[in-house]
Design brief:
Layout: H1 18-48, H2 54-82, H3 89-106, H4 115-146, H5 151-182, H6 186-206, H7 208-214, H8 226-234, H9 237-267, H10 274-287, H11 289-299, H12 301-317, E1 328-332, E2 336-339, H13 340-378, H14 383-412, H15 426-450
Antiparallel strand pairs: 1-2
Helix pairs in contact: 1-2, 1-4, 1-5, 1-6, 1-7, 1-9, 2-4, 2-14, 3-4, 3-6, 3-7, 4-14, 5-6, 5-10, 5-11, 5-13, 9-13, 9-14, 9-15, 10-13, 11-12, 12-13, 12-15, 13-14, 14-15
């Protein structure tokens, strides 16, 4: 049997109002902060505030993500079994607040009598926070495939999620480090950042509860037991191909995320530049959503994914040429004196946003198609289980990436410190550049070889096939 899908017509479906799309998308603000901030900030927090070596910090992040490999699919399977009686809303109501609380505790500067014990403490709190996050995120993601049967409307719904993703990126990546400084730096600054972001996560993650309560999932048979659902997921060719490609891609991006704060602090020499960088990237991402929705209709989702990811990889390679320091070349409003490398970073920012939005939106939209295909093929309710597997693979990737980055930094001679950053040698700076450019670009290019196996055609998504 051949599976090929590159756009075309979709089954008819009741309209989804913009208000519901916005409420659904708003939940991604907190979800993105919880996903990104630990990836970006925990390596910096653990190595410069808690005195933990980079390799040990990477291991402390990896261990919770190993648990999530099992936790996410279990939550997804459980939410499928409870969907008829509970719906998805109770999972959001419990998972959101517990996630926010865990995030706050995670960034409390607790130091024990050895770096190993301190690393164990951080890893334990991160494990509990990740568990609560699974209870929220997996049912939240499953909602997108249940809100409509129209493949292109699902792309629009997910485009709104991308918009709010960038709000989360602006907060969790762009403003996090400067916020720590504005709050006084040191332990006080980290605690203030954790508390403020925890409140923001709580507010945003409760918004989709309204959508969940009003969404009636498509009728399907009784969900399978957990192991049977896992076997079903593995037997779904489009899902399997997308899962592998997205995992490979996410490992590389996670390595980049784990190095972004170090990149701006040590290589570009101005961590506050993260704010305009993230803002410009977000403008590109948000502004390009109509382009990617239109292009996916014209040439297909997989083709749009491939095009945007390929150009993103080429652009990312150029960071390898960045040189620390350099003379002041301009004076910009609100930014003051800037070097040539800092200007080039700002020029790259909107382009990165445009391209990153393209392949991330397509990956999420192709996931909903693969989930719907599974429902049509088997006549069973497995949205949560498949989404849980997909979410687990992404979280594992975002643990493997920083762990890989930690190994590279340790091998390059990066020096850990207590109470703040210390100067790094030329070899450590080169290691940061490799993490931020060569590693993510290579992994994204590798993912394009795998995504070629993803195929669906419009008829595969028709309910009449079930």
């Amino acid at each position: 049997m051949t599976y090929s899908y590159s756009g075309g017509s979709s089954p008819s479906s009741p309209a989804v109002s913009t208000g519901r799309m916005v409420l659904y998308g708003a939940g991604q603000v907190g979800a993105q902060i919880v996903r990104d901030s630990p990836t970006v900030l925990l390596p910096l927090f653990m190595t410069t505030m808690l005195g933990i070596s980079p390799w040990l910090a990477g291991l402390a992040i990896l261990i919770p993500k190993l648990w999530i490999i099992l936790c996410d699919p279990l939550v997804g399977s459980w939410s499928d079994r409870k969907k008829a009686s509970w719906g998805r809303a109770p999972f959001l109501l419990v998972g959101g607040p517990l996630t926010a609380l865990g995030f706050f505790i995670l960034f409390l500067p607790v130091t024990l009598d050895s770096e190993v014990k301190t690393a164990i403490w951080v890893s334990l709190i991160y494990t509990l926070t990740s568990t609560a996050f699974s209870a929220y995120l997996v049912p939240y993601m499953a909602l997108a495939s249940e809100m409509t049967t129209d493949t292109h409307v699902r792309t629009k719904i997910l485009a709104w999620r991308i918009v709010f993703t960038m709000v989360g990126v602006i907060a969790g990546v762009g403003f996090a480090q400067p916020l720590i400084g504005w709050a006084g730096g040191g332990a006080k600054g980290w605690t203030a950042m954790g508390g403020l972001f925890a409140l923001l996560c709580l507010a945003s993650m409760l918004a989709p509860v309204v959508v969940a309560r009003r969404t009636v999932a498509p009728a399907s048979g009784e969900p399978q037991p957990f192991l049977a659902q896992m076997a079903t997921a593995w037997s779904n060719p489009p899902f399997r191909a997308l899962l592998a490609a997205f995992f490979i891609q996410s490992v590389g991006q996670a390595a980049s995320y784990g190095a972004v704060a170090l990149m701006f602090l040590f290589v570009l020499g101005n961590v506050t530049l993260l704010i305009p960088f993230i803002l410009l990237m977000s403008v590109g991402s948000v502004g390009s959503q109509p382009l990617w929705v239109w292009l996916s209709r014209k040439i297909g989702k997989r083709e749009t994914f491939t095009l945007s990811a390929f150009v993103w990889a080429l652009l990312t390679f150029t960071w390898l040429l960045a040189k620390p320091g350099g003379p002041i070349v301009a004076h910009l409003p609100m930014l003051g004196d800037v070097t040539g490398e800092q200007i080039l970073a700002l020029v790259r920012a909107p382009l990165i946003g445009v391209l990153n939005a393209g392949f991330f939106l397509m990956a999420q939209s192709m996931l909903t198609d693969a989930v719907v295909y599974d429902r049509v093929r088997n006549g069973r309710s497995s949205e949560g289980a498949l989404t849980g597997v997909f979410s687990a693979s992404e979280k594992l990737a975002y643990a493997v990436g920083p762990f890989l980055g930690g190994i590279v930094l340790s091998a390059a001679g990066f020096h850990a410190s207590h109470g703040g950053a210390v100067a790094q040698g030329a070899s450590a700076l080169r290691g940061i550049l490799v993490n931020y450019s060569l590693v993510p670009a290579a992994f994204v290019l590798l993912s394009l070889l795998v995504i070629r196996a993803y195929h669906l055609k419009p008829a595969d998504l028709e309910p009449s096939r079930g």
